């Protein structure tokens, strides 16, 4: 079955090696392979499918737009699809939260949103250095990759990556160490060797870095530190945003208002490529064409993104989502007797194992039982749980039952 892919596809492929099936259909939380076998999907397109596969409301809006011959590709031309999305984003996301941002349509990847954010911060401040955090990950293009903590990902680019100062994330040095006190000392000491930064880039939950969580108080202090020193605060909400932590924007719980927010993955709602950079109006300083891209006008993604926001317009959607967050946490906590620790927040949880090989073995055992989930962390020691936000309770329990069996099988084998 894999011979065609082995012969013609690049050696850089990853997920298909872990999940060697030929998938032919998908709906909601389920994938089917060519034999008709069903798999529960707790991978969710690495966070690009927060509403599951082929959500009926989003699909209906997409088919209606296509049937009417709506423009698919539009560069940055004004289109009805873009107008509808801008209106809904303002009505459903910005105004209810008291947020004021300009919306920049970048190229369609999260890395492109990060590149736009870095350009904006550097232009607005006239500085070049950027503060990033241990275990962070922000994309695979050179500017975004320079921020990454993962040595393997950085090494693959084959060229020096600079103009970044990396500092410890919340909790990196243990619960008793205040990492922001360390950062503040670096910034204020002219002998530290750290150039004044244009920006601080942070994830509230480090999705690829091992599901580490920044505390609300830590985030508020980080914002205060940045504002005191006229540093642009950038929140990378590419994986943790769009509801993955229980609120549409992952930093809502902390009550902060970043200067720039990067969104991608599930912002289209349907798995269609799309990214946004939200910019405080006072620092919307890039001129026409200074951050461009042929596919920043992907109107099909605009259509499904607006339809996804219609889901959020109903308060019951958030109520139901937060119930699922609590249920997932309860089921994950019940597995800690096997020696793992629960990390993450909301519907972005992980099981961290003392031995890195255990997580990969659990993922493989789960796949054999019909459950897709990936690993996370620089050592791959965390099993990442990302079921669709819309999954029903029965399927969530079934997936966690499968995961529990996989964990018990793997950990008991290791002990024997």
Number of domains: 2
Strand fraction = 15-25%
Q: In which order are the strands of the major sheet placed?
A: 4-12-11-10-7-5-6
Strand tally? 17
CATH architecture of the largest domain: 3-Layer(aba) Sandwich
The CATH homologous superfamily of the largest domain corresponds to: Type I PLP-dependent aspartate aminotransferase-like (Major domain)
Detail the poorly predicted runs: none
Largest sheet: 7 strands, mixed
Number of continuous helical runs: 14
CATH class of the largest domain: Alpha Beta
Kindly provide the radius of gyration, computed on alpha-carbon positions and rounded to a whole number of angstroms.
21 Å
Taken from the alpha-carbon principal axes, the silhouette is globular
CATH topology of the largest domain: Aspartate Aminotransferase, domain 2
Distance between the termini: 34 Å
Helix content: 25-40%
SS content category: alpha/beta
Mean pLDDT: 96
Please provide a written account of the structure.
The protein has two domains: 3-55 and 316-415, Alpha-Beta Complex (Aspartate Aminotransferase, domain 1), CATH 3.90.1150.10; 70-312, Type I PLP-dependent aspartate aminotransferase-like (Major domain) (Aspartate Aminotransferase, domain 2, 3-Layer(aba) Sandwich). Helix 5 (80-94) runs parallel beside helix 11 and helix 12 (315-333) runs parallel beside helix 14 (393-415). The chain contains 14 helices and 17 strands. The radius of gyration is 21 Å and the shape is globular. The mean pLDDT is 96. The longest helix has 23 residues, at 393-415. A hairpin with a 4-residue loop joins strand 2 and strand 3 (38-41). A seven-stranded mixed beta sheet has the order 4-12-11-10-7-5-6, sandwiched between helices. It has a four-stranded mixed beta sheet with strand order 1-2-3-15. It is 38% helix and 16% strand. With 416 residues, it is an alpha/beta fold.
């Amino acid at each position: 079955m894999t011979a065609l892919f082995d012969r013609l596809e690049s050696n850089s492929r990853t997920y298909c090696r872990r999940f060697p099936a030929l998938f032919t259909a998908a709906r909601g939380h389920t994938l089917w392979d060519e034999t008709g076998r069903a798999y529960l999907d707790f991978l969710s397109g690495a966070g690009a499918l927060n509403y599951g596969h082929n959500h009926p409301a989003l699909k209906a809006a997409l088919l209606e737009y296509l049937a009417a011959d709506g423009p698919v590709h539009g560069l940055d031309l004004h289109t009805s699809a873009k107008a509808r999305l801008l209106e809904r984003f303002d009505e459903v996301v910005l105004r209810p939260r008291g947020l004021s941002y300009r919306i920049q349509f970048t190229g369609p990847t999260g890395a492109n949103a990060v590149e736009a954010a870095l350009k904006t911060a550097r232009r607005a401040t006239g500085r070049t250095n950027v503060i990033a955090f241990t275990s962070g990950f922000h994309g695979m293009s050179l500017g975004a990759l320079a921020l990454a903590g993962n040595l393997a990902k950085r090494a693959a680019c084959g060229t020096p990556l600079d103009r970044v100062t990396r500092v410890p994330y919340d909790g990196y040095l243990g619960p008793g160490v205040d990492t922001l006190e360390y950062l503040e000392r670096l910034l204020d000491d002219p002998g530290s060797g750290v150039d004044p930064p244009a920006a601080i880039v942070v994830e509230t939950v480090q999705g690829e870095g091992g599901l580490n969580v920044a505390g609300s108080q830590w985030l508020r202090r980080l914002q205060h530190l940045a504002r005191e020193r006229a540093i642009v605060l950038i929140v990378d909400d590419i994986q943790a945003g769009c509801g993955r932590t229980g609120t549409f924007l992952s930093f809502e719980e902390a009550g902060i208002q970043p200067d720039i927010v990067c969104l991608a993955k599930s912002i289209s709602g349907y798995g269609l490529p799309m990214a946004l950079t939200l910019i405080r109006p006072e620092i919307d300083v890039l001129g026409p064409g200074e951050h461009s891209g042929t596919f920043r006008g992907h109107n099909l993604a605009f259509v499904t993104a607006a339809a996804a926001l219609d889901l959020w317009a109903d308060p019951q959607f958030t109520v139901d989502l937060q119930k699922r967050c609590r249920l997932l946490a309860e089921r994950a906590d019940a597995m800690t007797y096997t020696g793992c620790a629960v990390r993450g927040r909301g519907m972005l949880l992980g099981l961290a194992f003392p031995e890195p090989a255990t997580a990969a073995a659990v993922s493989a055992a789960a796949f054999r039982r019909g459950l897709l989930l990936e690993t996370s962390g620089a050592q791959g020691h965390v099993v990442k749980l990302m079921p669709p936000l819309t999954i029903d309770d029965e399927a969530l329990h079934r997936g966690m039952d499968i995961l529990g069996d996989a964990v018990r099988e793997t950990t008991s084998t290791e002990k024997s």
